[in-house]
Amino acid sequence: MILEGIVTTEDARGHVNIAPMGPQFEPGQDHFLLKPFATAHTYANLVQHPEGVLHVTDDVLLFAQAAIGLVEPTPALMPAARVRGQVLVDACRAYEFRIAEVDDTQDRVRMRAAIVHTWSQRDFFGFNRAKHAVIEAAILATRVHLISPAEIASEYQRLEPLVRKTGGRDEEQAFAILSQYVQEQTNSHAHKARPT
Hints:
Blueprint: E1 5-10, E2 16-21, E3 31-34, H1 41-48, E4 51-56, H2 60-67, E5 77-79, E6 86-88, E7 93-103, E8 110-120, H3 129-141, H4 149-166, H5 169-193
Antiparallel strand pairs: 1-2, 1-4, 3-8, 4-7, 5-6, 7-8
Helix pairs in contact: 2-3, 2-5, 3-4, 3-5, 4-5
């Protein structure tokens, strides 16, 4: 099963990277599989220092910001208990991990992460169509270089009513920043493609 979560890692200088990730994760297991791109900050950080924290959260605004690299302000963090890393204070659950195995023979690196400590911080809010729509929009925003602008626009048109009808302020803000980002990226790619 793919679990949409947020991973925090640190670089060699201790700077925290906050990134959405969809690891393969089965409840009750003592490990999970991360599959970052070899160009991702998460991968570079885990190569330098093979420890981090996977978070389960219902904060879709943070998902949206992390997906496009605009996590401002930085959310509240606290030191992890068993690894060198940071835990998002407002996460529902967190799993501290160490990388046990790496297979870098494909574009998507496969990193087996052993869970070394688990946090349970607060209840999950619950299911909501707007939250799911924002997660889908965030995933699409990370793939603007892979999916046609028309296909992304069509999906955003399908997702927007779900956010408008069932979301709150955070979901609406998250969808708005993602929409703006996708539009800017689409315009940028279109401008670069025009002959001069």
